[in-house]
Write a structure and sequence with these properties.
Elements (H helix, E strand, L loop, with lengths): L1 H13 L3 H9 L1 H19 L28 H12 L2 E6 L2 E6 L2 H10 L1 H4 L6 H7 L9 H19 L4 H19 L4 E2 L2 H17 L8 H17 L4 H4 L13 H25 L9 H15 L7 H32 L1 H14 L15 H14 L14 E3 L2 E3 L4 E4 L1 H5 L2 H4 L36 H18 E4 L11 E3 L3 E3 L4 E5 L1
Parallel strand pairs: 2-6
Antiparallel strand pairs: 1-2, 3-10, 4-5, 7-10, 8-9
Helix pairs in contact: 9-10, 9-20, 10-15, 11-13, 13-15, 15-16, 15-17, 15-20
The structure holds protoporphyrin IX containing FE.
Length: about 525
């Protein structure tokens, strides 16, 4: 304390602030008190809750650990830096938000599976709270989440198994998709938007019972708005850490523009479709998500039981299915084609397997999957190596919790670090290498590997896992059956480094699809 006192005296003298120096000398008691309160304030602002997992030593008020992280906002990179020192469980402050990383398969499994009743909540974050109002499936908690998730899973199961509704819808879409690629006649093009349209249309068919034409202006505006909205709220959005910045004039952080995009999507696409379904509801023709939801709402209202199945929740659930289901799967398709450009021998091996089992005369079906283990191994290796969901979605604990001897506060953001598992050399041996054979045994059959968790694990495991796997299998087999994908310039291949947004996506690239 004496040191600080002398230092202040020096500073005042250095700046020749005579008045202040005088004041300071005359009121030593008051000044000492002020210095003490200031130090206490700084200590209070910088202090961390006791017993939280280890992380950077000097946490600043307001900025948190952002200086020690040198402004890095990619959570995978942050976790890799921290793991060098702190291993499997570590923590970091982004602003005043505490992030806790779970960095190994065993620790994630222990949290999300063994302690799933505690670790399955979602944290409060600026963008997601604002956009979802914590309704729907992805960001809700407790009973509302349970009801939405149960309904969505049952409906997907109803469409996907026993009846072939889902496969028929995917086949129909792939037909349009392949036709557009064929029209390019081997000339180079960018598959990004086309792949979004194909995958988004499958969700549309499932949710609304209809697909959009690829040149439909409303569909195109919807995709534009979704893309710009997701880019803004994706990983690293500064408003999640400093929400007050939304008041900066000129909408610098795109707060207002995201709200406008969201309103457009709700008012022009989702709500009109719900209203139309309400008006024309016929319980003998229930073959899409909305009519199935309406049937369930009617059923529940007859029983008089309290329920969270209502129109507001339906709007949010539809948004969730589009947001969670479109970019993830379409990005994985783009990575697959990109890896084929880098590994033409792997593409040829897939083609040979497809020719042996299916030939060229019919569309691949999901029942062919067990007979195409190499194609399946390639898709698994793409899901591992491209790892589009990066660190996965954030979790939260339902109450202050002790885990592995550390304190996990209720409001901490918990990151089950999928990236750490999928790139762990202790598990994969040569995690950096693209090698589909790692998923096959010596008889050429698929090996199930527990640590293969691109869809996460536990109660919050990706709700669309089966649908995504079905889509990927049918898209990839049909594409390879119909076209050979070759680079525009074999000496200058598009990069395998991706860009971080809502998912980890390839940098836009051009490709040639030569009809077989
Ligand atoms: C390659 C494709 C996909 C990948 C890699 C993927 C990955 C993931 C991951 C890592 C999570 C977070 C799980 C957690 O919180 O622990 C998740 C959640 C979710 N996914 Fe997917 N996903 C994909 C496709 C889909 C599709 C096609 C749909 C929908 C139709 C979908 C719907 C959802 C939903 C609704 C959730 C939230 C589940 C909940 O909170 O209960 N996903 N996904």
């Amino acid at each position: 304390m004496a040191g600080i006192f002398t230092m202040l005296l020096d500073i005042f003298q250095y700046f020749n602030i005579e008045y202040m120096t005088g004041l300071f000398k005359d009121n030593v008691g008051v000044t000492t008190g002020l210095v003490f309160v200031t130090c206490l304030g700084i200590w209070w602002l910088m202090r961390k809750p006791r017993g939280i997992p280890p992380g950077p030593r000097f946490t600043l008020p307001i900025l948190g650990d952002m200086l020690s992280l040198k402004g890095e906002s990619d959570l995978r990179v942050v976790a890799r830096q921290l793991r060098k020192e702190h291993e499997n469980i570590c923590s970091v402050y982004f602003g005043s938000k505490l992030f806790i990383f779970l960095n190994s398969y065993d620790v994630i499994k222990e949290a999300l599976v063994k302690n799933g009743d505690i670790f399955s909540n979602r944290p409060s974050m600026f963008w997601t709270d604002l956009l979802t109002q914590r309704k729907g499936i992805v960001m809700s908690d407790g009973q509302p989440w349970k009801e939405q998730r149960k309904f969505a899973l049952e409906t997907l199961r109803e469409f996907g198994f026993g009846r072939t509704i889902l496969e028929d819808k995917i086949h129909e879409e792939i037909g349009h998709f392949v036709e557009v690629i064929g029209q390019k006649k081997g000339r180079h093009f960018d598959m990004c938007r086309l792949s979004q349209k194909g995958v988004s249309n499958i969700i549309s068919s499932m949710v609304y019972g209809k697909r959009f034409e690829y040149d439909d202006p409303v569909f195109n505006i919807f995709l534009d708005k979704s893309e710009s909205m997701l880019q803004t709220i994706g990983h690293g959005s500064v408003l999640n850490v400093f929400p007050f910045l939304r008041f900066v004039p000129g909408d610098l952080f795109k707060y207002q523009s995201v709200l406008n995009d969201l309103d457009f999507i709700k008012d022009n696409i989702i709500l009109p479709s719900i209203n139309e379904h309400m008006k024309n509801f016929d319980e003998n023709h229930v073959d899409d998500y909305i009519s199935s939801y309406i049937r369930e709402m009617k059923k529940v209202s007859k029983t008089g039981q309290p329920s969270y199945l209502n129109e507001d929740q339906l709007v949010s659930a539809i948004l969730d299915l589009f947001i969670a289901g479109t970019e993830t799967t379409s990005t994985t398709i783009l990575w697959t084609i990109l890896y084929f450009l880098h590994h033409p021998n792997i593409q040829s091996k897939c083609y040979k397997e497809i020719q042996n089992v299916i030939g060229s005369g019919r569309l691949p079906s999901i029942i062919d999957k067990p007979s195409l283990p190499y194609v399946e191994a390639v898709i698994l290796e793409i899901l591992r190596k491209a790892n589009i969901s990066m660190t996965g979605l954030p979790h939260a604990v339902s109450e202050d919790t002790r885990f592995h001897g550390y304190h996990f506060p209720k409001d901490a953001i918990i990151i089950p670090n999928v990236d750490a598992v999928l790139t762990d050399n202790k598990i994969w041996g040569d995690a950096d290498v693209f090698r589909p054979e790692r998923f096959m045994d010596s008889d050429g059959q698929i090996i199930k590997r527990d640590a293969m968790m691109p869809f996460s694990i536990g109660r919050r495991v990706c709700l669309g896992e089966s649908l995504a796997k079905m889509e990927l299998f049918l898209f990839v087999t049909t594409l390879v059956q119909r076209f050979e994908f070759i680079p525009v310039d074999a000496d200058n291949l598009p990069t395998l480094r991706g860009v971080v947004g809502l998912t980890y996506a390839p940098v836009k690239y051009q490709v040639r699809a030569v009809p077989r």
